[in-house]
Amino acid sequence: MLDADTPQLPLWSDQDRVDGWTIRQSRRARRLSVRVFHTGRVEVVAPARSSQRTVQLFIERHRSWIERKREEARRNAGPEESFPPPAIAFSANGEAWKVHVAGGRGRPRVRVAGPALLSIEGDITRRRSVSDALRRWLMRHAAASLIPQLEACAREVGVSFRRALIRRQRTRWGSCSARGTISLNCCLLFQRPEVVRYLFIHELAHTHHMNHSPRFWHEVARHSPEYRRLDRELLDGWRRVPSWVFGDFQDGR
Ligand SMILES: [Zn+2]
Questions:
Q1: By the 8 A CB rule, do 110 and 88 touch?
Q2: What is the rounded CA–CA span in Å between residue 106 and residue 121?
Q3: pLDDT digit string, tens, across residues 114-132
Q4: pLDDT class for 80, splitting at 50, 70, 90?
Q5: What is the distance in A from the centroid of ligand 1 to the CA of 65?
Q6: Is the sign of the CA dihedral 203, 2, 56, 21 positive or negative?
Q7: Which residues contact 219 (CB under 8 A, 6 or more apart)?
Q8: Distance 94 CA to ligand 1 centre (A)
Q9: Residue 6 Cα, ligand 1 centroid: separation in angstroms?
Q10: By the 8 A CB rule, do 199 and 234 touch?
Q11: CA of 211 to the centre of ligand 1 (A)
């Protein structure tokens, strides 16, 4: 997962001018690839200078596979989660937080009210403000929990990085800039410790190799021999993220 310079292409055929399709060009991509995310979003990545025709043919060739995956995604969407969530569980560190809705008036705020107890205070019909406050807490909590873990992992493998920060992105779990800044997605908190450690190893290896070359993977494999399986699990990790983390909320009145 690199910070790639990837302009987004327009969608080329009318047939593909539907929700949830992205076609982008990547200077780093060597071949065409397609991914279907758990939300049903489809992303096609094309090497720079691919012709429209090539991309269209690629999509046609894989259309039945893509449709099957989208159908699966729709089936797995599951029931609506309640909001505010009654509990928040973090697989990464085994924490299970209870969420108490204290209610009251004014702007909603989230407060740590005890060990593994969050309190939401204020007017909870302002759903958007509640979700914003929860997300701010999630970001702070991810920084406090994940960054020290990353530092420990870096010491363990003898790699240094310049700094780390937490982001909340829908499509990438981490990145490493040429200057040695490692970004971690706050949603890593919802992944298993093994998977989180693999992501750390992956980004730390980028401080030596700014690419996904065989040498890069060799370094990853040295510290995370099961990286292939863990990488697949991470790719699928979005389905373990509760919907409030990215949901769009309308205020109740
Ligand atoms: Zn990478």
A1: no
A2: 8
A3: 999 999 999 999 999 999 9
A4: low
A5: 26
A6: positive
A7: 205, 208, 209
A8: 26
A9: 15
A10: yes
A11: 7
